[in-house]
Amino acid sequence: MKSTEIYSSATHSWIVLGRDSQKSESIIDTNQYLIKSADEAIILDPGGIELFSPMLASLLKHVKLENITALFASHQDPDIISSLGLWDKAVPHATLYAPWLWEGFIRHFGIDNIHYQPIKDEGGEVKIAKATLKFIPAHYLHSSGNFNVYDPKAKILMSGDIGAALEKGEPPMFVEDFASHIKYMEYFHRRWMPSNRAKNNWISRVRELEVDMMAPQHGRIFKGDMVHEFLEWFARLDVGSACE
């Protein structure tokens, strides 16, 4: 599994882990994100159970296990958090931040040691040493209880399934040509995002933030003008319509 630093400052850094050439072709490729600051770290959407071994090997190049103090799950899907039972043994001292709505479901993945900290519908925040991260509501996109993570200093929005693209092989890290990238996103968003009202609420919320990078859980990262391009495209897209 590859690991790439996408942001670094005196206070904290962001690392994306994914594009695992050893994974099965039948498994959707996912991006996992590590944020580390001083002697603390958080993993955003740590991935499926089948990714645990390569994830752990990659993480240990950047952080000690005892410094992983928190995990975040944007929602309940297995590609997001089915590895929880293994993380529960690896980092038993950690706290899992996840939607309150999905606690009873996420616990089915196994949680005996990690503390489950439910996120209220309106969101909240967490401090990882010198970094402050905000939980941004993204309900119904596509999960009924769903959150993004926003870093106001790095100006990065970890957007979960919003902005996701499904491509074969190992695509580049960043979107380079938005128009040619649409074909990898359109069906996914029309099928998996059920509500135009929820979509528009999210767009309004995100437009109030300063976002230099939008980092989804699948596919390439949007950077600079590509963030604006995505918001404009998503605003025009009629979601929940792929089966009509």
Automatic annotation (TrEMBL):
Database matches in Pfam families: ODP (PF19583)
InterPro entries the UniProt entry points to: Metallo-B-lactamas (IPR001279), ODP_dom (IPR045761), RibonucZ/Hydroxyglut_hydro (IPR036866)
CDD domains recorded: flavodiiron_proteins_MBL-fold
Residues annotated as domain Metallo-beta-lactamase: 29-218
Taxonomy, superkingdom: Bacteria
Protein name in the entry: Metallo-beta-lactamase domain-containing protein
